């Protein structure tokens, strides 16, 4: 009723105050039904051709929380002379969608119609190229950035760095960074992320040192600390991780949950479980990531029983485990040879928590059974899986068979087929093994 009353006032709008009221209503409404009524009014009065109204309306239906890409495209087609801002909204919507490559097509269409892209256009289309893994498109956008003189736009160049970094072109990302006349903390963080993503972990740690020295007027922030802690985990750089931890304490980031979780993961990866547990104990409001990080820490260091104890405490605190939690638990049982516990956890995951096992869960249980010599049981589990076993699972079973042996004729036949596939590099035929074993007409079944 309220929306109908509001819409009924629109035909009488004539003053600037009323126009501003309509724009405010477009920006604030949270109901699709109201937007549909506004749209009908804009079409009936031809105000859809007025950028004052069409821009905020298109923005409202193209972006969260009311994002509807199909509706956005229909509305966009009703605008007879769209301006660059209209195009930017559609490109941005595609960058946030499952079809980022279509954003580049909109960008090309905009230029074909004589519209010159601005810095926002170039930023949004670069994100489309990053998400859509379009190297050719990104290179074209880079050329346009240089041509149009946006070489001092730090935000745009940072987006370009993310494109090169995401495409595995770390050197090109670093070159863009080096050519920036001014760099903010975001640009430095993207550089750290680029180094970490492309396996240049030592360089990522060096960036943290450079920022701390204050040579460029940008101190590390909480995001920098998160990225560097990840780099420390990758390198098992315990001493450097301790330095980052001290920086976190000195700069008031020690209560940030994501940083605390990263510290637990870093210390665990470095084998410093006492320090990891100390940080874990000091976290006031632990979430599922916190508990999983600690469980994973114990599990990866061969302390499966401690991992199970943490899981029990997690349940007492009322925190629901997720798929990653069970992956860590089952891995801990495997590394510690806890067969009964592992089987029980695998069963509870499905029965009590309603989680469907994925390839990682099955892999842990197969490894656990293989370690204790239950090769045939592991094989039966593989055959009964609700997903296709990958090469890693078959190799795990083969390794267990080499250690413990098997009398199963069926297993010998399976391994012969696998070895032939691996010998000739026919990894695509490995999936056929699963189908052969499931086939009831197979005489060896």
UniProtKB/TrEMBL annotation:
<feature type="repeat" description="PPR">
    <location>
        <begin position="287"/>
        <end position="321"/>
    </location>
</feature>
<feature type="repeat" description="PPR">
    <location>
        <begin position="322"/>
        <end position="357"/>
    </location>
</feature>
<dbReference type="GO" id="GO:0003723">
    <property type="term" value="F:RNA binding"/>
</dbReference>
<dbReference type="Pfam" id="PF13041">
    <property type="entry name" value="PPR_2"/>
</dbReference>
<feature type="repeat" description="PPR">
    <location>
        <begin position="184"/>
        <end position="214"/>
    </location>
</feature>
<dbReference type="GO" id="GO:0009451">
    <property type="term" value="P:RNA modification"/>
</dbReference>
<dbReference type="InterPro" id="IPR011990">
    <property type="entry name" value="TPR-like_helical_dom_sf"/>
</dbReference>
<dbReference type="InterPro" id="IPR002885">
    <property type="entry name" value="PPR_rpt"/>
</dbReference>
<feature type="repeat" description="PPR">
    <location>
        <begin position="83"/>
        <end position="117"/>
    </location>
</feature>
<keyword id="KW-0677">Repeat</keyword>
<protein>
    <submittedName>
        <fullName>Putative tetratricopeptide-like helical domain-containing protein</fullName>
    </submittedName>
</protein>
<dbReference type="Pfam" id="PF01535">
    <property type="entry name" value="PPR"/>
</dbReference>
<dbReference type="InterPro" id="IPR046960">
    <property type="entry name" value="PPR_At4g14850-like_plant"/>
</dbReference>
């Amino acid at each position: 009723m309220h929306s109908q009353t509001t819409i009924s006032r629109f035909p009488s709008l004539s003053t600037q105050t009323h126009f501003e009221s309509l724009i405010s209503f477009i920006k604030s409404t949270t109901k699709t039904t109201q937007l549909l009524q506004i749209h009908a009014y804009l079409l009936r009065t031809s105000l859809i051709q007025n950028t004052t109204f069409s821009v905020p309306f298109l923005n409202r239906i193209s972006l969260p929380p009311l994002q509807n890409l199909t509706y956005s495209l229909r509305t966009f087609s009703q605008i007879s002379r769209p301006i660059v801002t209209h195009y930017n909204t559609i490109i941005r919507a595609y960058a946030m969608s499952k079809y980022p490559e279509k954003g580049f097509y909109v960008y090309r269409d905009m230029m074909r119609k004589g519209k010159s892209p601005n810095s926002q256009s170039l930023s949004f289309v670069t994100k489309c190229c990053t998400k859509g893994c379009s190297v050719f498109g990104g290179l074209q956008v880079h050329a346009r950035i240089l041509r149009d003189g946006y070489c001092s736009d730090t935000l745009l160049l940072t987006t370009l760095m993310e494109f090169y970094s995401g495409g595995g072109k770390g050197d090109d990302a670093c070159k863009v960074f080096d050519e920036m006349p001014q760099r903010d903390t975001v640009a430095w963080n993207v550089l750290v992320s680029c180094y970490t993503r492309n396996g240049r972990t030592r360089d990522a740690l060096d960036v943290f040192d450079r920022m701390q020295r204050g040579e460029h007027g940008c101190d590390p922030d909480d995001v920098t600390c998160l990225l560097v802690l990840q780099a420390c985990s990758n390198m098992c750089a315990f001493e450097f991780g301790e330095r980052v931890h001290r920086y976190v304490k000195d700069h008031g980031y020690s209560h940030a949950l994501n940083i605390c979780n990263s510290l637990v993961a870093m210390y665990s990866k470095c084998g410093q479980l006492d320090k990891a547990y100390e940080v874990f104990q000091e976290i006031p409001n632990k979430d599922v990531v916190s508990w999983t990080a600690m469980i994973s820490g114990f599990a990866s260091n061969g302390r499966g029983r401690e991992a199970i104890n943490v899981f029990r405490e997690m349940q007492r605190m009322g925190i629901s485990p997720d798929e990653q939690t069970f992956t860590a638990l089952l891995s801990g049982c495997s590394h510690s040879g806890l067969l009964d516990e592992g089987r029980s956890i695998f069963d509870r995951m499905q029965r009590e928590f309603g989680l469907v096992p994925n390839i990682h869960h099955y892999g842990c249980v197969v490894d656990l059974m293989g370690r204790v010599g239950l090769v045939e049981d592991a094989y039966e589990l593989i055959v009964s899986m609700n997903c296709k076993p990958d090469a890693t699972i078959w190799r795990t079973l083969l390794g267990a068979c080499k250690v413990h042996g098997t009398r199963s004729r069926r297993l010998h036949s399976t391994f012969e087929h696998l070895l032939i596939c691996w010998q000739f590099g026919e990894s695509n035929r490995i999936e056929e093994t699963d189908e052969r074993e499931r086939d009831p007409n197979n005489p060896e079944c």
